[in-house]
Amino acid sequence: MIDKLSLATVYPEIVLLVMACIIALVDLSNTSPRRTRTYVLTLLTLAVVGVLTGLNAVEGKTAYGFGGMVVSDPMGNWLKCFATIALMVTLVYGRPYAGDRDMLRGGELFTISMFALLGMFVMISGSNFLLIYLGLELLTLSSYALVALRRDNAVASEAAMKYFVLGAMASGFLLYGLSMMYGATGSLDINEVYKSISTHKVNHQVLVFGLVFIVAGLGFKVGAAPFHMWVPDVYQGAPTAVTLLIGAAPELAAFAIIIRLLVEALVPLAFDWQQMLAVLAIASLLVGNLAAIAQTNLKRMLAYSTIAQMGFMLLGLVAGVVNGNSYNGASAYSASMFYIVTYVLTTLASFGIILLLAREGFESEEIVDLAGLNQRSPLYAGVMAIAMFSLAGLPPLVGFYAKLAVLQALIASGQAIYIYLAVFAVLMSLIGAFYYLRIVKVMYFDKPVTVSTVSAPRDVRVVLTLNGALILGLGILPGGLMTLCAKAIVATLAT
Amino acid sequence: MGLLSLAIWVPIAFGAVLLAFGRDEHANGVRWIALIGSVVSFLVTVPLYMRFQLGSAAMQFVEKASWIERFHVNYHLGVDGISLWLVLLTSFITVVVVISAWQVITERVNQYMGAFLILSGLMIGVFSAIDGLLFYVFFEATLIPMYLIIGIWGGPNKIYAAFKFFLYTLLGSLLMLVALIYLYNKSGGSFDILTWHQLPLTGSAQTFLFFAFFAAFAVKVPMWPVHTWLPDVHVEAPTGGSAVLAAIMLKLGAYGFLRFSMPIAPDASHEWAWLMIALSLVAVIYVGLVALVQQDMKKLVAYSSVAHMGFVTLGFFIFNELGVAGGIVQMIAHGFVSAAMFLGIGVLYDRVHSRQIADYGGVVNTMPKFAAFALLFAMANCGLPGTAGFVGEWMVILGAVKFNFWVGFGAATALIFGAAYTLWMYKRVYLGPVGNDHVKVLKDINAREFLMLSLLAIAVLWMGLYPKPFTDVMNASVTDLLRHVAISKIPS
């Protein structure tokens, strides 16, 4: 089965795997505490992989490999490209922080995160339940190790423990659901499953039973309420560099498997899973937004904000199919894709600022640690303010268009119930605006505790500035990215 | 680039440059750049008036380019008789505000000036957008600089005020967003406001849209009973912030009624006109009485703003030409007068650091030049003939009497209350013997303040003595609007 054509669909993954192994070996002889050589090699590899996946994505072709196990389509390739970029940015932001906290002594941060990326790639391009599950496990196992990277830190170890136990349970749920599907349809292949379900010969009850477990497992992975319990603890407990690592790029992969499993394989059951997702979305919006208000810890607040944002993203998926009619599908799913991509972009900026401030010996995890940032560094305060206003969904920042696209998908369905959902989401984002505004308030209106200026290595400063500029720039001209998402989703649904 | 694009982006570009400028050691250079930027952006808007085709109700200076292709959103600009003067007002007030901040703001000068210039460009954007989403983007974006202006340079309770301002107005505009998307889908995928004006809509859809827009615009105007944020914000905001807020930002709401609520949902507008008129009358009469008992000068002027804006909405919803045109004239007049009132209070506050009326008395003895200006603006605020305040109020009252005698009668009482609270404040602050030691050592206004107040004085007198340039511009558009609003849009 291994032919040239199949290899052509996975060569970015091969490059990534080979280079991850080589870099792990090279790192053995690297004695510098800052691991500059490993760092540069990793970034170079990621740049190459990013370009490869980007070129694939631009080409816009869909190809299957290994007997339909693997698919390389525009949506997958774009998500891979974005995930690679997100990981690069994460490593740039995270390296000074990790270096200060003795997390670079072995080169694991770099190699394990490359394996995590490989796991994401496999998740994104899996067209088979088994492969998707394998990718997911590779990602989560890497993440467990990364969260526990500060061995001597009790909080981090506790977070790793929680993450591991809950994550294993979620994986179990997902696996159980997938096996139910397999039992009912007799296939692990996504296209086969779709065919056999749409011919209506499968016992609906078994399918729905399996579906419940699949949705629960996915809910865990994206951190949607009521499966969100791990999110605040892990976000808070993990070293901030790792928080960013598990909070940014993997969201893209999680989105991909939602599309693969729920839309590509199980869209005939859309009526059932949409209701479940709607419940998850409403719960996430409520829990995330209300709990975030009460937080004083910045990382914890951002964790709850993630939950709320994921709720909003799920609403886009809910609007895809109306009365068995999927004409709204492409626009709804592409709205969700746009949402998740811009969310990752914004998350990178906000955690980048936290990482930057955390360098001076203390963790900078409390909201009050941001006090008077504007006086210490107008640039970084500006970037953080842009990120917060974007998360709050204010124009002209990119977060607004993400919310707009999702709301448009909901209202375009024409169903009264969806319009109520849109109004509910809007009211919840008003609550959300309150705690994002509080961050801006602390930075701009409060007096700084220290007056020292904030300094950053040049690479961090350049990337962080670009990151902020991109949130604003995409807000002024969001058309390109929107079209890109729409085209990618259309191409994926067409097959 | 067209004129309107220049009017929007020149101040924003200058503002962005200022933000990049850095720390306060260059404060003087920053001030000059801000002044040049605001004057240039004012000069850019002047040709809009010079080249405006009178007698045409169509959008002029139209620019159109595809912006977000996926949602058929266009970068679509244009002004008609309703919005032209609001654009000019915005760029004019920005110049005045920059001058007013010259020596007053000494901390983070570049951010202060930058925020005002960006705000100015965004507000011009609101007045000239004829694409629904473009309008919304500008409308919402104004919240960010205003929030920062209140929060950074405001008074002791600034954080409460900044949050109240932001969240109140955000709530309204989010509901408007839902309405905009609803219209987008109803019209088969268009965000063009002019297309929406032609859209047939059922009665219940119109009611939904009317109240969604009402949520956004009534809060912004603000109408009674959602006006409570305004006095709080005015008290805390820095002088320039109060001036811009009262002079222009409140107009965004009133303008929205004309551009969205009335032409898109004419049947619902007629049906709910009684509510709008009732709320407006409450604003005019009750809030006027509330203003009478204020101890704080800024609060007094803030309540007087609510009352004056009540006139505007009253004029709109009596659906006759005098009323609507009067409402628009009143918007512009209130722009000049309220800015002048707040800047005047700012002049006193800079010297004494109090806004309590009781802390003053006899200011005319130590600041005669300033007191003369203050008298002119006080007269304009109570609507004395010959000043800007008179024209709009008189037109609205005339229109209201035509509509219903008792509505006109109620509106006319505002002239009495307006005169009462304004003149009483003037008497307590300026007249009589010198009140205390603070007042005894006051220095009269300097050249900068003189310049700033004379600019406004010229505007107030010009508009009062010769309102023709203002009314001529809007006649055709108002007639067209009313003709349009008179036709039912409920599909038969």
Structure description:
The complex is a heterodimer of chains A (495) and B (492). Chain A is mainly alpha-helical. Chain A is 77% helix and 1% strand. Chain A contains 20 helices and 2 strands. In chain A, strands 1-2 form a two-stranded antiparallel ribbon. The mean pLDDT of chain A is 87. Chain B has helices spanning 3-19, 27-50, 84-100, 109-128, 132-141, 143-153, 158-186, 193-197, 203-220, 229-236, 239-264, 266-271, 273-292, 297-316, 321-352, 363-366, 368-381, 388-403, 405-430, 437-440, 447-465, 468-485, and strands spanning 60-68, 73-79. In chain B, strands 1-2 form a two-stranded antiparallel ribbon. In chain B, α4 runs antiparallel to α5 (132-141) and α11 packs parallel to α14. Chain B is globular, with a radius of gyration of 21 Å. Chain B starts with a helix and ends in a 7-residue tail after the last helix. At the A-B interface, α16, α17, α18 and α20 of A face β1, α5, α6 and α7 of B.
Secondary structure topology:
The complex is a heterodimer of chains A (495) and B (492).
Chain A (H helix, E strand, L loop, with lengths): L3 H25 L7 H24 L3 E3 L4 E3 L1 H27 L7 H18 L3 H19 L6 H32 L4 H9 L5 H19 L7 H8 L2 H8 L1 H17 L4 H24 L4 H21 L10 H29 L15 H4 L1 H15 L5 H15 L3 H30 L12 H19 L2 H16 L1
Antiparallel strand pairs in A: 1-2
Helix pairs in contact in A: 1-2, 1-4, 2-3, 3-4, 3-10, 3-11, 3-14, 3-20, 4-5, 4-11, 5-6, 6-8, 6-9, 7-11, 8-11, 8-12, 9-10, 9-13, 10-14, 11-14, 12-13, 12-18, 13-14, 13-17, 13-18, 14-16, 14-17, 14-19, 14-20, 16-18, 16-19, 17-19
Chain B lengths: L2 H17 L7 H24 L9 E9 L4 E7 L4 H17 L8 H20 L3 H10 L1 H11 L4 H29 L6 H5 L5 H18 L8 H8 L2 H26 L1 H6 L1 H20 L4 H20 L4 H32 L10 H4 L1 H14 L6 H16 L1 H26 L6 H4 L6 H19 L2 H18 L7
Helix pairs in contact in B: 1-2, 1-4, 2-3, 2-4, 3-4, 3-11, 3-15, 3-21, 4-5, 4-6, 4-11, 5-7, 6-7, 7-9, 7-10, 9-11, 10-14, 11-14, 11-15, 13-14, 13-19, 14-15, 14-18, 14-19, 15-17, 15-18, 15-21, 15-22, 17-19, 17-21, 18-19, 18-21
